[in-house]
Design goal:
Catalytic activity (chains A, B): a hydroperoxide + [thioredoxin]-dithiol = an alcohol + [thioredoxin]-disulfide + H2O
Order of helices and strands of chain A: EEHEHHEHEHEEEEHEEHEE
InterPro entries (chains A, B): AhpC/TSA, Peroxiredoxin_AhpC-typ, Peroxiredoxin_C, PRX_1cys, Thioredoxin-like_sf, Thioredoxin_domain
Oligomer: homodimer
Strand content of chain A: 15-25%
Protein name (chains A, B): Peroxiredoxin
Keywords (chains A, B): Antioxidant, Oxidoreductase, Peroxidase, Redox-active center
Organism (chains A, B): Salvia divinorum
CATH class of the largest domain in chain A: Alpha Beta
Radius of gyration of chain A: 20 Å
Helix content of chain A: 25-40%
Number of domains of chain A: 2
CATH superfamily of the largest domain in chain A: Glutaredoxin
Strand order of the largest sheet of chain A: 2-1-5-4-3-8-9
Amino acid sequence: MPGLTIGDPLPNLQVQTTHGPIKLHDYVGNSFTIIFSHPGDFTPVCTTELGAMAAYSEKFSELGVKLLGLSADDVESHKAWIKDIEAYCNGCKVTYPIAADPDRRIIKELNMVDPDEKDSSGNQVPSRALHIVGPDKRIKLSFLYPASTGRNMEEVVRVVESLQRAANHKIATPANWKKGEAVVISPSVSNEEANRMFPQGYKTTDLPSKKGYLRFTNVE
Amino acid sequence: MPGLTIGDPLPNLQVQTTHGPIKLHDYVGNSFTIIFSHPGDFTPVCTTELGAMAAYSEKFSELGVKLLGLSADDVESHKAWIKDIEAYCNGCKVTYPIAADPDRRIIKELNMVDPDEKDSSGNQVPSRALHIVGPDKRIKLSFLYPASTGRNMEEVVRVVESLQRAANHKIATPANWKKGEAVVISPSVSNEEANRMFPQGYKTTDLPSKKGYLRFTNVE
């Protein structure tokens, strides 16, 4: 199936949400933005996910990250369902907008259709897709999870922390990295440049190839 | 960019690997299979990721899951690089095959091209894509991460544990779920069916809508 993938521009769609109409590029503005779809309102995993996202929304706000939910249900359904979400998550508040896509136009353009799932009327519904969009309005990273598998907010926070550091420094984050752990210097940076860019120093791992490409440092 | 997404069939390509030629469908057989690409051999994040995958390979083997790495480098490069990977990860062994795609044919068909990255010759390289393929040879779940962000093996294990339970029971796993925690019963299952299917019992969360859709149980 054709669809949006990393590096692609976010289509600048006009969408109806629980916070009124928004244009996607205006909403993103200069922030990293998380756009996440769910199969349907008043369904079990979705309730736990949007509750978890509400519980993490302060954390995302601290990181300067905006949130936007999305499903094929309408705005009135979303508003009624939010009462269930907030009751489930013990007083957390759904402060982020949830977009409505009854025509399935947005979920198609954003590669969020789940081909294996239909609603009770036989219409297509979204997968548990999650795109992280950069301030340049391009897709930086995507999760495409099926209806069976709720997402993991800790992993979403982890990758945001990685993307933000990589946007500010010529570094990348190694496998299983968590905030506070060492990062690696990009291969495009020579050792001479690394000495200037990283006055805190760096450590090169000694490997059989002796190519000296695995250089660890620390950045905030 | 057009590309493979969840629900799509895995193309049955013939690929060259460090373990000899394989056909993708034969390799998958009746197992869940993880196909993961990396931007390039002898680069920093990739070395940590393939080392982490080697360290987790026994865990994946216990889960009955096969692994297949992939980049645009050739087999000889992969074989030389494995010495670095194994040195980095303190004696772990790269027992899984790594496929070679110097023509960039496979990464295009598997939606693994990173539009923002080129090698030193200006050729396309893969992103950090990871597809989990089911025994039915279809894509069940995908991660599309950029070069800057190493993947998280704990999250990969978590979603495999979810997919396998959902394949065996009419359940799904809630947000942030980990093995051993309660799961939710699928909305397609009536309460009467749930009583038969889950003799261990289940608990319905009381929500303002009184729709009774959030039912937790436990499965192995």
